[in-house]
UniProtKB/TrEMBL annotation:
Gene Ontology cellular component annotations, sorted alphabetically: ribosome
Protein name in the entry: Ribosomal protein S18 acetylase RimI-like enzyme
Residues annotated as transmembrane: none
Naturally occurring in which organism (per UniProt): Mucilaginibacter lappiensis
Alphabetical keyword list: Ribonucleoprotein, Ribosomal protein
Domain DUF5118: 60-107
Length: 857
C-alpha cells in the first residue's frame, strides 16, 4: 500500500486552480463569484489578540468564571453569557478537528452594494493548545492524510505551517478538566477577516474603519454541529475606488451591517472523493499528491457533490437497479421574504432535478420546501440549512454557490442568491427572443403563469450550480438547427441538452412552426441527467477513488461515443465556435439568420408592445437596446468561426484529434454573413419612428457601435495571425489571409464596382475599415532587446505576430487604393465622391510614408 500525503493547492473551477474553498456562482447570464480565502501574506495571517489578564494567563476556578448567573447553551461549543461577556467552552475532544467558518451578511444598509444573505467568506479553522495556558485558533492551509512512516509526508509537513489567527488566554478548566474556557467577546466583534470583511472587500464597498461605539454582538446561538454568531457592525464610509456612491441612507458617512458567522463541524467520517474528469462539468478542488514511489508530483482533482448514499437496508435493491431513497435528502428552503406567488415556481425549479437523480438511482433525492416560519429552532443563517435567499435589489441577477468540504469535495450547504429584479432580465430576454412566436411575450407585464415559468427555469439553472455542475456552453451546439424548427422533435427533446448552457430560449423557431412553450424553454435534459448520474451514482465494491475512476472512464468513453448530446465544453473556450453563451444549434450562421428574421418582425412592434398610458419611452428604449443587443450576439456567434479551433478533450482511449480548425467553407460563409447582415445597412433596425423617441441623434447610435466592434474584431491582428497559422499548418484546406481580407473588402466596398451611391452608414463603415487596416499596418514598437520588451509587456509571440501581419496589411492597402482610385470617376453622388477622394488621400499618405523609418522586420 502506498504512503501518500496530500498538500492542498486550491480548487479547480473552469479548469483552473483557484482559492482554498470554492464558492462558485453563476447566474442566468451573469456569473457572480464569491471570495473564499485571502492569499498568503494578507491580513488573515495577522494574529488578533484579545485582551489578556493582568496576571500571566492565570487560571481561575470554573465557578468564578462561569458564575451562577451565566446563561448557558449546549452545542458545538458550549456558550456561556455572563453579564456582557461571552465565553466558549472548548472540549479537548474538539482540538485539532477541522471546522468550517462561514461568514454571511444578514442585513444591509440600503444602497450599500451588498445584500442580506450574501456569503462573504469561508475558511477552515481548528483549535490547538499553546504554551502558557493559551488556546490558539489556527487557519488550515493544508490537509495531510499520510502514513507517518512515509518520508515524503515529513517533507510536506515541514514545508507547511498553518497560521495562528488568534490567541486566547484560558480562563478556567471545566469541572472535569476536559474542556477549556476562553473569553471570546472582543474576538467576536473584532475586524478579523475570518469574521468580517477583508481589506479588499472593504475597499470595494467604500468602507474604512469599524466604529467600535456602534458595533456590538447581537446574539450567539449554539446547535449540535454548529455555533452561530450575529453581530452588528458599523463602518465609516467613503466613495469607493470603484466609483460607487455612498448609500443613500448612510447617515454621516456610515454603513451598518448585520453579519452572521457559522462555525460548522466538518463530517467526522470524510466522504469518498470522486476524481475529476475534464469531460464532465463539475466544480472541483485540487491537491498536489505526493508518494514515495512517484517520479513526478501529480495533481489530484476531485469534484464537488452532495453526499448521497443508499440506506443500508436498500443496498440490494440498489444493486438490482431499483430506485431507493438516500440516507439524507438534499433540502432547499425558500426564504420567507419571497413573494408568495413565486414560491411554487422556485420550488418546482428545485424539484425538477428529481428526475436527474432518478437516473443516478435515487428517488426523492432533492426537494424544495417553504421555510417553517414558526420554528424557532431554525435560523436562515444556520449553515446546516440550504436556503434560496431573496434580495430586495434592483440588480438583475441570480447566483448559485456551493460550499464544499475542502478535504473531499462534499457539498455541505448552499445559499442561493435571488435578486428581485431578475424578473426584468428574463422579461427582456423572452420578449426579444420569442415575441415573434409567443403572443404572451408581447406586453410590458407578463401574466403570472408565464413569469412563473421563467422563474422556474432560472431556479433550475442555479440549483444545478449548487449541485456542483458548471456551465456547459457547448451543449446547444449538438442540436441541428433545422430540428429547432421541427415542432414534434423540439417539443420532445428540447432546444438544448443542458439547462446549464446559456441557451435561454428558442429564437430560431419561426411563427409558421407553431412551437409551444415546451419547445421554447430550456429544461433539465440529457446532459444534466447524465452528469448527475456520473457524479452521484455510487460505484459499489471498489476500494478507493482511483478504482472508481477507472470504471467511470470506461462509462464516459462509451457514453460519449454513443450520444453526442452528452458533450461538455465548459464556460466557453476561447476559439471554439461550438462553445459560446447565448447561441443555439450546430450552425451559428443558420441560427443567426433565423434569429434576424424574427427580429425584423419584432422591432417594428416594440412601440405597441411597450405602450403604457401616461408613461414615457423608457421601456421602449430598454427593449430596443435589447433587440440591438440580440442582433449583436448573432454577429459575434458567427465571428467565432473566423480563425476558430474546435477543442474536444480526449484520453488515449478515444480516437481522433483534440484540436481541429474551423472549415474553409464555414469561414467563407461567415464573411458572407457579415457582408450581407452586418455591413449592409439594416434599414429595419435603423427605424426613425423608434429612434426619434429614444435618442437625440448625437454621435454613434447602437448599430454603428456594433459595426465598429465587428470591424475591429474581424480585422484584429491576433485573428489574422491565427488564420496565418491555419494556412501554414493545413495549406489549401485553410482560409488564406489575403483571400479573407479581399472578401471583406469586396463586401464593404461593393458600391465601387458600379459607382453606386454610398449612404451615410456605409461611408462611416468604410472609414472604420480603412482605419482598422491602417492601424494594423502602423502597429509597431521599437525592438530594443528581449529584456526591454519583456519589461514593457511585449512578448516574442507579439513581435512575430505583428511582423507577419504588417506586410499583409501593406499589400491590402495598395489594392484598396487602386479600387478607390478607379471608382471615383464612375461615382455621381456628390457625398459619395468626396468620401472616396478623402479615402484616396488617406491611403496615398500612408503608403508613401514609412510608418517606422529604417524598419527592418
Amino acid at each position: 500500500m502506498k504512503n501518500i500525503s496530500y498538500l492542498k493547492i486550491g480548487q479547480k473551477s473552469l479548469g483552473i486552480a483557484t482559492a482554498m474553498l470554492l464558492l462558485t456562482a453563476n447566474s442566468c447570464g451573469i456569473l457572480k463569484s464569491k471570495k473564499a480565502k485571502p492569499k498568503p501574506g494578507t491580513a488573515l495571517a495577522v494574529p488578533v489578540r484579545p485582551k489578556a489578564d493582568s496576571a500571566l494567563n492565570s487560571l481561575k476556578p470554573y465557578s468564578q468564571v462561569i458564575t451562577a448567573k451565566a446563561v448557558t447553551q449546549k452545542g458545538l461549543f458550549m456558550v456561556h453569557k455572563v453579564a456582557d461577556k461571552y465565553f466558549f467552552e472548548i472540549p479537548n475532544s474538539l482540538l485539532s478537528k477541522e471546522i468550517l467558518l462561514v461568514t454571511r451578511l444578514s442585513k444591509s444598509t440600503p444602497g450599500a452594494g451588498n445584500y442580506g444573505g450574501e456569503e462573504i467568506g469561508a475558511h477552515v479553522i481548528y483549535w490547538e493548545k499553546g504554551p502558557n495556558n493559551k488556546l490558539f485558533l489556527k487557519v488550515s492551509a493544508q490537509i495531510s492524510v499520510a502514513d507517518s512512516a512515509s518520508m515524503i509526508s515529513k517533507a510536506v509537513t515541514n514545508s507547511n505551517l498553518d497560521p495562528i489567527n488568534a490567541s486566547f488566554p484560558i480562563k478556567a478548566r471545566s469541572k472535569d478538566s476536559t474542556a477549556s474556557v476562553i473569553d471570546v467577546t472582543d474576538f467576536l466583534i473584532s475586524e478579523n477577516p475570518l469574521l468580517a470583511f477583508d481589506a479588499n472587500d472593504k475597499k470595494s464597498y467604500g468602507l474604512t474603519a469599524q466604529m467600535a461605539d456602534r458595533s456590538y454582538i447581537e446574539s450567539v446561538k449554539s446547535f449540535p454541529i454548529n455555533t452561530e454568531i450575529k453581530t452588528i457592525r458599523t463602518y465609516s464610509a467613503i466613495a469607493s475606488g470603484m466609483g460607487k456612491p455612498l448609500p443613500a441612507t448612510a447617515e454621516a458617512g456610515a454603513v451598518t451591517l448585520e453579519m452572521n458567522n457559522s462555525f460548522v463541524m466538518l463530517p467526522e467520517k470524510p466522504m469518498r472523493k470522486r476524481l475529476y474528469d475534464e469531460r464532465v462539468g463539475f466544480f472541483a478542488s485540487s491537491f498536489n499528491k505526493y508518494t514515495d514511489d512517484q517520479q513526478k508530483v501529480k495533481s489530484e482533482d476531485f469534484i464537488h457533490r452532495w453526499r448521497l448514499e443508499p440506506k443500508d437496508e436498500d443496498i440490494d435493491k440498489f444493486r438490482r437497479g431499483e430506485l431507493v431513497e438516500p440516507k439524507k435528502q438534499i433540502v432547499y428552503y425558500i426564504d420567507p421574504a419571497t413573494p408568495k406567488k413565486w414560491r411554487p415556481y422556485l420550488i418546482a425549479g428545485i424539484n425538477d432535478w428529481q428526475k436527474a437523480f432518478e437516473q443516478a438511482g435515487f428517488k426523492n433525492a432533492i426537494i424544495g420546501k417553504e421555510w417553517p416560519e414558526g420554528d424557532s429552532t431554525m435560523s436562515l443563517d444556520d449553515a446546516r440549512f440550504s436556503v434560496l435567499r431573496y434580495f430586495a435589489s434592483p440588480q438583475q441577477n441570480a447566483y448559485g454557490p456551493n460550499l464544499a468540504d475542502p478535504r473531499t469535495g462534499e457539498i455541505l450547504e448552499s445559499h442561493i442568491g435571488w435578486y428581485h429584479n431578475v424578473m426584468s432580465l428574463v422579461h427582456r430576454w423572452y420578449m426579444i427572443q420569442c415575441g415573434a412566436v409567443d403572443p404572451r411575450a408581447r406586453k410590458n407585464k407578463f401574466d403570472d403563469q408565464l413569469m412563473g415559468q421563467l422563474i422556474r427555469f432560472v431556479s433550475s439553472h442555479e440549483i444545478g450550480h449548487t449541485l456542483g455542475l458548471r456551465h456547459n456552453m457547448g451543449s446547444s451546439s449538438t442540436v441541428p438547427v433545422e430540428k429547432l424548427r421541427d415542432k414534434a422533435w423540439v417539443e420532445a427533446h428540447g432546444h438544448t441538452p443542458s439547462i446549464m448552457d446559456y441557451a435561454r430560449f428558442n429564437y430560431v423557431a419561426q411563427p409558421e412552426d407553431h412551437i409551444s412553450e415546451k419547445g421554447l424553454f430550456p429544461r433539465i435534459n440529457d446532459y444534466d441527467k447524465w452528469a448527475i448520474q456520473w457524479g452521484y451514482k455510487p460505484v459499489l465494491d471498489q476500494p478507493d477513488a482511483e478504482a472508481e475512476a477507472k470504471i467511470l472512464n470506461k462509462i464516459t468513453i462509451d457514453s460519449l461515443a454513443h450520444n453526442k448530446r452528452l458533450w461538455f465544453s465548459g464556460e466557453g473556450r476561447d476559439h471554439d465556435p461550438r462553445s459560446q453563451s447565448e447561441d443555439l444549434g450546430d450552425d451559428a450562421i443558420k441560427a443567426s439568420n433565423y434569429g434576424i428574421k424574427n427580429l425584423k418582425r419584432i422591432v417594428p412592434q416594440l412601440i405597441n408592445w411597450t405602450r403604457e398610458e401616461g408613461e414615457d419611452y423608457t421601456e421602449l428604449k430598454e427593449m430596443y437596446k435589447e433587440a440591438v443587443g440580440q442582433y449583436t450576439k448573432y454577429a459575434y456567434h458567427v465571428m467565432k468561426s473566423l480563425g476558430g479551433v474546435e477543442v474536444t478533450f480526449k484520453t488515449y482511449d478515444q480516437p481522433g484529434a483534440v484540436y481541429k480548425p474551423t472549415s474553409l467553407v464555414k469561414q467563407k460563409q461567415a464573411i458572407q454573413f457579415f457582408n450581407q447582415e452586418i455591413f449592409t445597412t439594416p434599414k429595419w433596425l435603423v427605424d426613425r419612428n423608434i429612434l426619434d423617441k429614444i435618442e437625440p441623434g448625437e454621435g454613434f447610435n447602437d448599430f454603428e457601435t456594433l459595426q465598429a466592434g465587428v470591424i475591429a474584431s474581424v480585422t484584429s491582428q491576433s485573428r489574422l495571425y491565427r488564420v496565418m497559422m491555419n494556412e501554414r499548418d493545413y495549406g489549401k484546406g485553410a482560409y488564406s489571409p489575403r483571400e479573407w481580407l479581399n472578401d471583406l473588402k469586396n463586401g464593404i466596398f461593393s458600391e465601387l464596382k458600379n459607382g453606386n451611391t454610398i449612404d451615410s452608414y456605409r461611408r462611416t463603415l468604410q472609414k472604420m475599415y480603412v482605419g482598422s487596416i491602417i492601424t494594423m499596418y502602423n502597429k509597431h514598437f521599437a525592438y530594443q532587446g528581449s529584456l526591454d520588451n519583456i519589461l514593457a509587456g511585449i512578448t516574442p509571440t507579439e513581435i512575430i505576430l505583428y511582423s507577419n501581419v504588417k506586410p499583409l496589411a501593406y499589400a491590402h492597402l495598395k489594392v484598396l487604393r487602386n479600387d478607390v482610385h478607379g471608382a471615383i470617376p464612375k461615382t455621381k453622388d456628390y457625398d459619395s465622391k468626396i468620401h472616396l477622394e478623402y479615402l484616396q488621400k488617406m491611403l496615398d499618405k500612408i503608403l508613401t510614408e514609412s510608418p517606422i523609418p529604417g524598419l527592418t522586420y
